[in-house]
Amino acid sequence: MTAAMRPQLSACPACSAAPAAEALAAAHLPDDSHVVLSLPTIHCANCIRDVETALTATPGVRSARVNLTMKRVAIEADAGLTAEDLIPVVTGAGFEAYELDAGALSATQTDLAGRDLLMRLAVAGFAMMNVMLLSVSVWSGAEGPTRDMFHWVSAAITLPTIAFSGQIFFRNAWSALRAGRLNMDVPISLAILLAVGTSLWETSLSGEHAYFDAAITLTFFLLTGRYLDHRTRSIARSAAEELAALEVPRAWRLTDAGEEQVSVADLRIGDLLRVRPGGRMPVDGEVTDGQSELDRSLLTGETVPVYAAPGTAVSAGEVNLTGPLVVRASAVGRETSLQRMADLVAVAESGRANYTPLADKAAKLYAPGVHILSALAFVGWYLFTLDFRVALNIAAAVLIITCPCALGLAVPAVTTAASGRLFRKGLLIKDATALERLAEVDTVVFDKTGTLTAGAPEVMNTDDFTRADLEIALALAEGSSHPLSLALTTALRAKGLAPAPVTEIAEVPGHGTQGLWQGRRVRLGRAAWVGGGRVDLTATWLAVGDGPAQVFTFTDSLRDGAEETMTALIEAGKRVVLISGDSTAAVEALAQRLGIPHWIAEALPQDKAARIKALTDEGARVLMVGDGLNDTAALAGAHVSISPATALDAARVASDIVLLGNSLAPLPEAMRLSQKATRRIRENFAIATWYNVIAVPLAIAGLCSPLIAALAMSASSITVSLNALRLR
User: What global pTM score does this model have?
Assistant: First the structure.
């Protein structure tokens, strides 16, 4: 529901730095003067203006700054103002708002790794241009002291550049060797170091050949690939941390002396807590006093609020809608349902991390092959010539000519091109291997509420009522913040109706809204309270005086493109499954409407995660599409996952791809493009392989000069990049 970290493709530096600034501010201000709210539905500059205007106009608010990338607002306010006071201001402006615990959010949000890579790439590029200019002079026929001078100047430029720009490869290679394994950075580091070392030796002996240009070119191209790869990744926090940030940081505890506000960490089992309307449950427990209705959609996906009275069990994270409740805590801290869900997510994330990308698979074959070829070339030429210098030069040439530039660019070039195309269609790729995994999908699992549906109730039968009854219903609905009342208000206002002159309007917690109209009692609410009957659909009832109660029925409107997406997926041979925490009747009706053959209703978060695991154990490659807190563990556990832009932060952080628009239509196109992208990656690996097949014999035969090495590396890298651009 909050903002997931997105790849910093279009965010400005201020947006990137804002989260760190928020956390820093939180560290220096009292807890009750710095409030961070999640704004899951904001999407443009107008939203920013509306939220900030509404908040800054509130007495006691000193400043409000919206971060569109993170979909949250940081508020500095007087000590007396809390999130409970400010959330109604934001909702009154037309936006959803939920409190985040600023202390639980990490301050490491800035893209330091990306900036570091870009700086090293810039240094390598500048140095490469200068060294190549010097090399052109050597290739043009410079000899003797002139050639040696050019070589020494090249060394003076190359050595500090390699030491600075090549650190990322050296560190990764050293870590791999310490662990007793090989990765792509091992041959890269050996090629760079051997090229520089051989070149220094040759230069000191006034030799004709030096590989400074090849070494710096190799470093530049590989840093380019590494930076492209980084740009396709999301600099995201753990989904488990986001879940922790969604917890209520404070609670009102009842004592013999009255109410006191305490940190949730100070709560104990058996404590009595007061939860006001609009507040979230800080603990698992049982209602001991009060009547209200609970919104459990964040945890279960159930769209219909649940009646709560003494004896009702509640869970952390549920929202109290209409009346104050007193709750006795039965589970606090790490034992709450919210924390157990965070643990589920952490386990699921670690399981998905076992996926081996294509580049790593290629490296397992490539690294030992290159080392063996280079070693054999050294041994063979040494035995043939008994000249250590010649043998070492040829071994270095083999390592350089077989440089992994093409392999290093094979994946990031494709993923960058594909990510750009999908971004224009409304899909944001967060994970570098997401396209590879999406291409393998054979099973697609959808959540219902907020994913296949719009997540908001829609009135179905206003035409069954007289104009007078509709005006009465509008007057009563405007007196309540209940989701069904809000939907009814929207629908009746859209019809151009005005509220009837109903007086003494009052909301009865847990039941509905009542008032007086022309001396008669009018009520809008639950069937048992109003005197209505039973219907299988989501409904609210209207009673005017002693007349019979009439029912407003509601349905969840389909998300744009849902029907077309289901048809396309089924025609493509994918197995489609609907898993929801909603009621059986609602889930079955939607499955029949969309033609989904497999569905599961009333599923708890752990049930969804278990079903994903069961499908995976059966050999299925599962794509999970969901938006709620109850989907987070399933999203993290799936082979690949997608969440809408309106989803919870925790859901978006756990997912690999974010659907930016309101339509589901881009999903089938994304699956087709992912298969094309994977083919391009394999083609790039083939290009790199054939390049080595042609180039290696030249190097082993001693025919590879530094000029040939530099040209060959550039040609292979450009070819791979051009092949990737075919995706655009």
Answer: 0.60
